[in-house]
């Protein structure tokens, strides 16, 4: 059913393009008609599925079986936790055990603050900026971070890198990293 709707929608789209190209309103009306037909088929399919789902969830009438004693219902299991205790069940506060203190986090597991913080921006002289705009050398950027870096930059660590030309990086608004100093390194290499 859905394939028929897809074909009708694609045909309607083709006829709409034809109507726009030929400036004929007849093709536009035929396109509208096909779209309405596709919509009606979708509604009919939805209703059919809804009826099928409600029929499947409705209990089937039991066949005439000899009357038997109904099976006893199992006793409900006790709840493991009670969210709100009943009145009088609060007990004595002195009986409540003290919570155990949480262990101190190990310093080695936490990344150093300077590794996570954004590095400072490298200050580049105006004469070097003009030279950098014409270079095709590759630098790397990290998604959602404003700096571009050399591949050997210690701040990058294991982050996912995106290679990009330095001229393009500057055009996109990225600024040089103050740790690896890509501008100074590339300018020195090209002088």
Keywords:
single chain, 191 residues, alpha+beta, 6 helices, flat
Explain briefly what this protein structure is:
The protein is built from six helices and four strands, in the order ααααβββαβα.
Question: What features would you describe in this structure?
Answer:
- The protein is an alpha+beta fold and 191 residues long.
- It is 43% helix and 8% strand.
- The protein contains 6 helices and 4 strands, in the order H-H-H-H-E-E-E-H-E-H.
- It has helices at residues 2-22, 25-57, 113-116, 126-134, 166-171, 182-190, and strands at 138-142, 147-149, 161-165, 175-176.
- It has a 4-stranded mixed beta sheet.
- A hairpin with a 4-residue loop joins strand 1 and strand 2.
- The longest helix has 33 residues, at 25-57.
Task: Give the secondary structure arrangement, pairings included.
Elements: H1 2-22, H2 25-57, H3 113-116, H4 126-134, E1 138-142, E2 147-149, E3 161-165, H5 166-171, E4 175-176, H6 182-190
Parallel strand pairs: 2-4
Antiparallel strand pairs: 1-2, 1-3
Helix pairs in contact: 1-2, 4-6
Q: What's the mean pLDDT score?
A: 78
Strand order of the largest sheet: 3-1-2-4
Q: How far apart are the first and last residues' alpha carbons, in Å?
A: 69 Å
**Low-confidence blocks of residues:** 107-113
Number of helices: 6
Q: Supply the helix-strand structural class.
A: alpha+beta
**Which strand-content bin applies to the residues?**
5-15%
From the alpha carbons, calculate the radius of gyration and give it in angstroms.
36 Å
């Amino acid at each position: 059913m859905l394939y028929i709707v897809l074909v009708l929608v694609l045909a309607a789209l083709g006829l709409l393009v034809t109507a726009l190209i030929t400036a004929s309103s007849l093709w536009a009306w035929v396109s509208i008609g096909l779209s309405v037909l596709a919509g009606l088929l979708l509604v009919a399919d939805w209703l059919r599925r809804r009826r099928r789902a409600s029929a499947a969830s409705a209990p089937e009438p039991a066949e005439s079986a000899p009357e038997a004693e109904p099976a006893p219902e199992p006793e409900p299991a006790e709840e493991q936790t009670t969210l709100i205790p009943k009145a009088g069940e609060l007990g004595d506060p002195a009986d409540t055990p003290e919570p155990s203190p949480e262990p101190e986090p190990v310093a080695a597991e936490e990344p150093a603050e300077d590794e996570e913080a954004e590095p400072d921006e490298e200050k580049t002289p105006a004469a070097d900026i003009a030279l950098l705009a014409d270079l095709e050398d590759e630098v790397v950027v990290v998604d959602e971070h404003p700096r571009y870096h050399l591949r050997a930059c210690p701040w990058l660590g294991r982050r996912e890198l995106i290679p990009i030309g330095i001229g393009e990086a500057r055009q996109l608004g990225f600024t040089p990293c103050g740790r690896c100093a890509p501008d100074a390194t590339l300018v020195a290499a090209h002088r």
